[in-house]
Each structure stands twice: as C-alpha cells, then as structure tokens.
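Course exercise 7: structure representation. Students receive a sequence record and must write out the corresponding structure in token form. The form below is the worked example handed out in class, using Shikimate dehydrogenase (NADP(+)) (273 residues). Read each field label carefully; the graders check that inputs and outputs are placed in the correct fields and that the protein name is recorded exactly as given.

STUDENT ID: A-19
EXERCISE PROTEIN: Shikimate dehydrogenase (NADP(+))
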Amino acid sequence: MKKLYCVIGNPIAHSLSPAMHTALLEKNHLDASYVPFLITKETFTAAIQGLKALGISGFNITSPFKEAIIPFLDVLDPEAEACAAVNTVVVKDGRWTGYNTDGAGYLEGLRSIRPITNADQILILGAGGASKAIFQALSHHTEANIVVANRTVEKAEKMVVGTRHQAMRLSEAEANLAIFTIVIQTTSAGLTEENAELPITLDNLTAGTIVSDIIYNPAETPFLKIAKSRGATIQNGLPMFVNQAAIAFQLWTGIEADRNLMRNIVLQEIGGK
Ligand code: ATR
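STUDENT ANSWER:
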C-alpha cells in the first residue's frame, strides 16, 4: 500500500521539506507521498491521534511542536531527550521513535569543511532549540571544547551543567573571540530590520576561524558577511537543513539520500521567490 509521510508545524506553507522529500521518494521509485499539514495548538492532540489511526509511516515536526510531540512517543532517542526536542518520528511495527536530526545534520556540514579535533575551541551563540541540538551533537561526537554564550546567561549555564563545557555572557565571548576556532551563530538577532543588532561584534575574530550561521536564506547573513571580510571560512545553514532531512529520510527508508539533489531543490525554491 502507498505510504504517507508528512511534516507538521505552524507556519508550514513555506516549508521546503515536502519538495526535498518528494524528489527523494520519486528518485528512489518509492510508492509514497510527503505532505505538509498546518496544525494549531488546539488541534495538535487530535491531529497526532489521527496520524496514528491512519498508520502514518513517519513524519517531521517543526516549530512550535518539537517538544509537544514527546509524550506521544513510544521511544525517545537519547540525543533528542537531551535537547528535549524531536524533529523526526520513525514508525516501525506501529511503535513511534523520536529523533532529533538537526544536530547530526549540522555536524555533518561542519565536518565537510574539515575534521573536528580536541584542539578545537567552539563558541555557540544562543541557547534556543537549534543551539541545544548542535551542542548535543558536538559534545557527544567530537572531542572539542565548547562554550555556549547567551544573552540570558542562565539558559547557557543550564545547557552545560554536568558537562565539561562552559557557559559565558555574550560580552565575555566577544572579548575572548580570538581563542575560538569555530563560531556557530544560532540566535535570532540581526535577522530583520527591527532586530538589526548582531549578538556580538567580530572585531577580535582570528582569520581562518570557521564561522557558521544556521540561516540559509539569505545565503549570507550580516554576521557571515562581516566574518568573511575578516578572513573567516564561512558556512550558512543550508548544509544543516539538507543533512537533517537526509538523515530523516535514511531513518525512514534505509536509503542514503542524494544531498546534491536536495540542495539544488532548495536553491531553486529560494531563488525563485
Ligand atoms: P531556536 O529554537 O530557533 O534556536 P529560540 O528558542 O527562539 O530559537 O532562541 C532564540 C535565541 O536567540 C535565544 O538564545 C535568544 O536569547 P535569549 O535566550 O536571551 O532570549 C537569542 N536572541 C534573540 N534575540 C537576540 C538579541 N537581540 N541578541 C542576542 N540574542 C538574541
């Protein structure tokens, strides 16, 4: 029987996940569809029960429901548990397992630049959902030293508690910027005209530092533009976005996803808008 996959969230109309996954399903000649569903806080529980009743084969969850899905799962992957957020549900024999592929997706993109070693000093700016997923992946799968800096420093402190990693104020990270070999920008600062201020200045950045931003549209945020002008190797959020979807596809189907195909679809969609 034809399989159904979907993404749920709010808003969802501009999600590029359906285009990427549909292309992968077609390329692999799988008899399946992937569709977006807009749901609200009020309809969330009924929608999830509906997916279960209909025998959904797997789904993605995006903002603001990445936490709300957790009570409906039979199994929670430890990394998803550590960041208390799930973006992918895998269904096997009727059992739902929750994963978070954002962190692994980010790490795969970072490793495409160069291997990460115990000599790396990583600065993560922000302590929201994306930051937590990236922190979990980096702390579990690399030997690097990590500092999380956040405007509300208590959130960063909570993230690193019980680990060998550190929390800092943004001002402290800014003053110590020269020591970092990798800087990861996950905050929502500087994305709009009304919120144009960057989380930190980059005056003390060392040339050759890897600077990444989780945003991919625009391709170069103001933060990345300044970093590039200071001699950084920059990476935007496109590899993370493509890889998180590729990892989800592989979890559902066991098939390695064609990342070039996915990247081209995203670039085509954002270029055409
Ligand atoms: P996401 O889930 O996408 O990571 P989020 O949970 O809304 O996003 O988190 C937004 C992050 O951007 C937070 O770390 C937030 O800092 P606070 O925890 O102090 O709110 C950060 N942020 C938002 N606007 C900012 C600004 N103008 N300057 C610095 N940090 C900002």
